[in-house]
What we know:
The protein is an alpha+beta fold. It contains six helices and ten strands, in the order H-E-E-H-H-H-H-H-E-E-E-E-E-E-E-E. The chain has three domains: 52 residues, no CATH class; 87 residues, no CATH class; 67 residues, no CATH class. A two-stranded antiparallel ribbon has the order 1-2. A two-stranded antiparallel ribbon has the order 3-4. Strands 5-8 form a two-stranded antiparallel ribbon. The protein starts with a helix and ends in a 6-residue tail after the last strand.
Amino acid sequence: MVNFFVIIKCLKVNFKFKLLFVSFFCLLFFLIILFSFLHSSDLPVSTAVEKYIYNNTKLNSNNSEIIEEENDYIKWFEFNVSYEVLDKTSKLDINSHQKNEEIKYNWIELISYLACKYGNNFSKFKQSDLDKLVNDLKNGESMENLTKNMKLYSYYFEGYDSVLHEFIGEYQLETKTSSTTIENSIIEKQFEDKYDIKAFSPIAKNYSYSHYDDFGASRSYGYKRLHFGNDLMGSIGTPIIAVESGIVEAIRLESIWWLENWDSQF
């Protein structure tokens, strides 16, 4: 009877030892994986998790040797700026240029400054913060000096500039002037310099289309993500006007026509 209990006791000890042994190696394995991850080349270049450095390998001219090139670029960017901030900063930019004020504002710089201040969470926006920034710039402070201690300013500027760069700026508007002679009337084209919003609808004039506010809506095609665009649904055959220079790379035909996956060539 005693031997039976001794055997059971030994089994319990062995089981606890095995469990402790397995737990130790599982923890060791986890620590090795964590150490490898933290020291990989995909680490953030700053405390931000959004900006990454990638090492791209390329063959040299004779394809005999691999050359590593380090490219610093943004892997992911959240376009979180609110309509209120877009509206207020764009008006500051446009009005300062149209009135030829001494201090001309750049709305992308203003947005990027506020993004740093709020951690890109614009639900925290306060009008007083924007007013203070504008007053500092009016009083001679440079944006470079105001953002020198903001580690993520260049990151936010690059992200928002990539989306909003061509929305506001200089452009020429065609105006028609007519001059009448004895023989006939001549219509001459002239162009007037403007500074304003220069983004426009890609749907040709007088053609109907439907749409809804789907910017930021959830999308699951391919993978779950936010939709950073606004879909315009027109009839087949509707002329499309290019909103910027580019090359169409692919057209996908489904229940309706979609134009997508184009590569800009500037």
